[in-house]
């Protein structure tokens, strides 16, 4: 269902962009035909980038995923910018309908020349580009196209620099009820949504590992969506995760993208790399005689392969006198955590919205987009993730790795 809706939206955006940037700005002729064909080709590249990498393999797909996804990011902002520019177009509708002053001043005298009285009014298609015959409708269409093009290219350029650059390293203090003072200053590095795939490979993982190790955490939590592909294709890209260094080790829970491919093969591979997968289970983190419980639940998408979340199982056997920190990929899962007296849930999934203004939609669906909040007594921290999905663009939502400092 999601794929059908996304395909329909992509087709609609391409039609609208063709209408506003090609049909409304160019007369019928060769230039219009060439640009029409070009937009159709780019639309095909977007559909190919969205659907073919898993069928053809990542290596065979890289030549069209880069241009396809970059164009995808560009059409999103062209579409949104042109929609905003519909407001001044509507406001100027009366001005467009009035005859230009030049035409009035030089109007032919019907009495002097009967044939001149029936001269047709130049249309948007027939007006010569850039000449004095360009009418107001054409002037507005071309002006809107230039504004939308400049704004979209600028936003996508900044967004690509954010997405492909190093994540922000955030340091966030969190006070936990029942936490023993022995854990004051205990550091948990939280990273999510690494999204290894056709656009992000081994170098992406190596940078993340280096940044986490430089922060010297006591524990590393990877909260889902590690890879978009098979272990055979991306296993070497994930290998640097074995170099993560922390006193208590690295823990992992599944995200929704794990279930798009081969989740159990990936879990075995992460086990081989020394990561501890918490699959609806918990473990005790100790410091001397003090302790807290660390639990993890599977992602909601795991239900498709009978591997969904089981909160009762994940949180069984806890000591109620100490706090529980829960790893759960999707923030919306906090409602179940709050019912079970979880002190802190760590999540990802949202990408912080990835590019504005989609964080509004994400907020409606997940309840939280990024940062620290409280839901019915349970604290929720949502990282924006270290990678990206689809277009290599992040606008208003830079990637991050977060180091949480626990306080009693």
Q: Which properties best describe this structure?
A:
408 residues, alpha/beta, Purple Acid Phosphatase, chain A, domain 2, 2 domains, 6-stranded mixed β-sheet, 12 strands, 42% helix, 16% strand, elongated
Uncertain runs: 101-107, 110-133
Would you state the CATH class of the largest domain? Answer: Alpha Beta
Order of helices and strands: HHHHHHHEEHEHEHEEEHEHEHEEE
Distance between the termini: 46 Å
Count of the domains: 2
Give the CATH H-level superfamily of the largest domain. Answer: Metallo-dependent phosphatases
Gross CATH architecture of the largest domain: 4-Layer Sandwich
Question: Into which percentage range does the β-strand content fall?
Answer: 15-25%
Gross morphology is elongated
Question: How are strands sequenced across the largest beta sheet?
Answer: 1-12-2-3-4-5
Alpha-carbon Rg, integer: 27 Å
Biggest pleated-sheet summary: 6 strands, mixed
Structural description of this entry:
- By secondary structure, the chain is of the alpha/beta class.
- The protein has 2 domains: 2-101 and 133-161, no CATH class; 167-407, Purple Acid Phosphatase, chain A, domain 2 (4-Layer Sandwich).
- The protein has helices at 2-23, 30-51, 53-56, 58-91, 93-97, 101-105, 136-164, 202-214, 231-238, 263-272, 311-314, 334-339, 359-366; strands spanning 168-175, 186-191, 219-223, 250-253, 276-277, 281-287, 290-296, 324-327, 344-347, 371-375, 378-382, 400-407.
- Strands 1-12-2-3-4-5 form a 6-stranded mixed β-sheet, covered by helices on one side. A 6-stranded mixed β-sheet has the order 6-7-8-9-11-10.
- The radius of gyration is 27 Å and the shape is elongated.
- The two termini are 46 Å apart.
- The model is unreliable at 101-107 and 110-133 (pLDDT under 50).
